[in-house]
Design brief:
With 234 residues, this protein is an alpha/beta fold. The chain has helices spanning 19-27, 41-46, 67-80, 101-105, 123-130, 167-176, 198-201, 220-227, and strands spanning 3-8, 30-35, 55-59, 86-91, 114-118, 142-145, 158-162, 180-185, 193-195, 209-214, 232-233. A hairpin with a 7-residue loop joins strand 8 and strand 9.
C-alpha cells in the first residue's frame, strides 16, 4: 500500500504543529513542500523536524493559473511514492482552507493511493487566540472569506478576511457596514504585528495577513494589557 498524507503546519510557529504531524514528518519517505518564487514558508516551519534529503520542493507561483502545476505535482508524487512508502505534502495553516493541497490530492493520477489529512491551525484561529479574545460567542455567526466582495450583504457577527492586500480600503468598507476591524500580519512569527488603525495598514500588502472584524468594538487597552510586547502594535 502507498500513502499520501497532507499536513497543515499552522501559521508560522513550529511548536504549533500537532504530534500526529510530527510523527508523519519524522517517518515519511518523501516530503513535498511548496516553493513560491523562492519562499518556502511551510518548510521553514518544520525544517528542524525533517531529513532535508527527503524534501522535494514544488514550484507553486501564487497568482498564476496553477492547473497544470497541480497535474504535474500529482504525477510527480505518484511516480516518487513506491509501494510501501509514505509521502507527505505540507501546506501553511490547514489543508482544507483556501489551499492548493486538495487541488493536488483530487487529481486522477492519485486515484490508487491512500490518503489522509492532518489538521493544522489556521491563521485566523491563531490570531484570535494570540489576542486572547473570543472568535464567536453563543448565538453568534461567523464568516470566513478570502476577499471582501459585498459588504452590504454581510450579516455575520464576526468576519475573518484572509490574505488582505487592500487593508485600509477594507477597513473603511467594513466600518460603513457596522464592523470594527483589527489587522494582523505574520501571525505566530517574530514579525507579528497588529493595528486597529486603517491608516497604519493601508499601504501594507503582506500575503501573510488578515482582518478580523466584528460588531462589538475591540477593547485595545485590555488586549494590550493581556499580550504585553509579544505582538508589535503599529
Amino acid at each position: 500500500m502507498r500513502k499520501l498524507v497532507g499536513i497543515g503546519v499552522g501559521p508560522g510557529a513550529e511548536d504549533l504543529i500537532t504530534l500526529r504531524a510530527l510523527r508523519y514528518l519524522e517517518r515519511a519517505d518523501h516530503i513535498f513542500a511548496p516553493n513560491n518564487r523562492g519562499k518556502t514558508r511551510a518548510y521553514d516551519i518544520v525544517k528542524d523536524f525533517v531529513d532535508e534529503e527527503k524534501v522535494v520542493f514544488l514550484d507553486f507561483p501564487m497568482g498564476e493559473d496553477l492547473r497544470g502545476v497541480y497535474e504535474d505535482t500529482a504525477r510527480l508524487i505518484d511516480e516518487t511514492t513506491k509501494e510501501g512508502e509514505v509521502s507527505v505534502l505540507i501546506t501553511l495553516g490547514d489543508g482544507t482552507i483556501y489551499t492548493t493541497l486538495l487541488e493536488v490530492f483530487h487529481r486522477d493520477s492519485l486515484n490508487d493511493i491512500r490518503m489522509e489529512l492532518v489538521p493544522g491551525i489556521p491563521a485566523f484561529l491563531a490570531g484570535i487566540n494570540g489576542i486572547v479574545e473570543a472568535l464567536v460567542k453563543k448565538g453568534d455567526s461567523f464568516l470566513l472569506m478570502d476577499s471582501l466582495k459585498d459588504e452590504e450583504g454581510l450579516t455575520a457577527d464576526t468576519v475573518a478576511i484572509l490574505k488582505t492586500t487592500r487593508s485600509g480600503d477594507t477597513f473603511h468598507r467594513l466600518k460603513a457596514a457596522g464592523y470594527y476591524s483589527l489587522y494582523l500580519e505574520n501571525i505566530e512569527t517574530d514579525h507579528w504585528v497588529m493595528t486597529d488603525n486603517p491608516e497604519k495598514c493601508k499601504d501594507r500588502k503582506a500575503y501573510m495577513s488578515l482582518i478580523l472584524a466584528r460588531r462589538e468594538p475591540w477593547n485595545m487597552a485590555a488586549i494590550l494589557n493581556r499580550i504585553g510586547d509579544r505582538i508589535e502594535v503599529l
